[in-house]
Design brief:
This protein has 291 residues and is α/β, with parallel strands linked by helices. Helices cover 24% and strands 26% of the residues. The strands form four sheets. A six-stranded mixed β-sheet has the order 7-8-9-10-11-12, covered by helices on one side. The longest helix is centred in the C-terminal third of the chain and has 15 residues. Keywords: Hydrolase.
């Protein structure tokens, strides 16, 4: 039986962190998008929003910091509980964009939560590479994957994380077959970012889903890339809109078994008895026997 993952990617402007009605509008918007597909989908859709979709700030650095301090909540605070309820009500896997989390240590984190169709928070990834000096968040310290029963394993990366190949590689080594990259790229390097999305898919033979914020808060150009680096779907500009797709995670198995374009089997290059590769810059090693 094929492992299909129906996907709805929303390229949308951010909502203000100070907007007290943001969650009501968010629920209505998601429900409206889903209604276009009818009620008879057997497999719950995964709905993906961009980075900071519900936590946008503006103004001077001092004003942005003040807005974040007001908006920050524990990950399972009132806002998180409401998002869990929305996921359960609509019967979806919900990635609502990253939130400003107040950690148990008092620091602010740029955190990507995931909610299941039963209303359970199944993951919460703290962005490991905030874009300094613009982002005032504390860096996360752990990578995050979660399982969709019967379908496969999904890895999380946020915006600038995609510039660091170690992130996607670690997620792939943790078993991720799809990497969700939620972004809020406002700068002219979105073109390079699209190349990195494709490159990370090729390096690791995984799907990569990159959801970027729409105008006026971002440059859009969201895209979905397959395990051979081909663009399956994309938004040409920065306007608001949606991408839909159904990912067949068996394609990951096919590409890794037979190789990219039937040639490059990067996961099977090492042989029994090959030396372990020391990685002194990371104080670690690459040992394929542990994969």
């Amino acid at each position: 039986m094929s492992r299909y993952l129906p996907l709805l990617l929303v390229q949308s402007p951010c909502r203000s962190a100070d907007d007290v009605h943001a969650l009501d509008a968010f629920e209505h918007e998601v429900a409206t998008y889903l209604s276009d597909f009818g009620p008879d989908f057997e497999q719950p859709r995964m709905v993906v929003y961009p980075e900071i979709h519900l936590s946008a700030v503006s103004g001077t650095p001092e004003q942005r910091q003040a807005q974040l301090e007001r908006a920050a909540e524990p990950i399972d605070g009132p806002r998180g509980q409401r998002l869990a309820q929305i996921a359960a009500k609509l019967g979806i896997w919900l990635l609502p964009g990253t939130l400003c989390e107040r950690g148990e240590d008092g620091h602010l984190y740029n955190t990507a939560p995931v909610y299941s169709p039963t209303g359970e928070r199944v993951a919460a990834y703290r962005k490991c590479f905030p874009w300094r000096p613009f982002e005032p968040y504390q860096p996360g310290r752990e990578f995050s994957v979660f399982d969709i029963p019967g379908i496969g394993r999904i890895g999380l990366a946020v915006c600038y994380d995609i510039w660091f190949p170690e992130v996607a590689r670690q997620l792939a080594w943790m078993g991720a077959e799809v990497i969700i990259n939620q972004a809020a790229t406002t700068t002219c390097d979105r073109a390079q970012e699209q190349v990195l999305v494709r490159a990370n898919a090729i390096f690791n033979q995984v799907y990569v889903v990159s959801a970027n914020t729409a105008d006026p808060h971002g440059l859009g150009q969201s895209l979905i890339v397959d395990p051979e680096g081909r663009v399956r779907a994309s938004m040409a500009g920065a306007g608001q809109g949606i991408l839909t797709d159904v990912l067949n995670l068996d394609e990951v198995s096919r590409v890794r078994t037979f190789g990219t374009v039937g040639l490059n089997r990067v996961w099977d290059q090492r042989r029994e008895g090959d030396p372990v590769l020391e990685l002194p810059v990371y104080q670690g090693r690459m040992d394929f026997r542990q994969r």
